[in-house]
Amino acid sequence: DGATDSGYVKIFTKANGGSITEKLRIHGSGNLQIQDGNLVVAAGHGIDFAAQTQSSATTGGEVLDHYEEGVFTPEWANKSNCTFNVNVATYTRIGRLVHISIHMDINAKNSASAALEINNLPFAMRSAANFHGNTGAIHASGWDGQYVGLNGLVLPDTTRLLFYHQDSNGAQQSATHANQNTGNILCNVTYPVG
Hints:
Blueprint: E1 2-5, E2 8-14, E3 20-27, E4 32-34, E5 47-48, E6 63-64, E7 67-72, E8 75-76, E9 83-94, E10 97-108, E11 117-119, E12 133-140, E13 148-154, E14 161-166, E15 172-174, E16 183-192
Antiparallel strand pairs: 1-2, 2-3, 3-4, 5-6, 7-9, 8-11, 9-10, 10-16, 11-14, 12-13, 12-16, 13-14, 14-15
């Protein structure tokens, strides 16, 4: 049902119990205003931004067709019985870009060895040459020394986040479980998918 009032069109629905509720307004300006409920886009469709002013760069698709957020459990690689006080991560995916926040507080490293690596990211990194996901910031405690330029990279076509640091000669070296003891790692990582 629709009705006009003060320059816009109202759309109402009637519940089984008989109550009538305004759900939508279409303003004379052209704006669409949802009064109650969510905008639900059918599978295989999205929001089309093709009418926007294009940049001078080569453009791709202008349809925003994916939004998702959630929680997952990050997983150390190269360990057998490492235990944690906190081991949680959140993610938000908007289109083809994923942003992740990780908090791992290690209670006991036990027999962990080899490269320091987090697996089980919720989406695989884009499989393309010259693309890597990387950490924007890392806070780490409980290391056996001072590490300069500590950073993480997501490898293409994987769900793996590996950590690196700069040695005294300025070369990048893989961080290992031998470098890290009990303590914590908090980091944010952003990478493209698809």
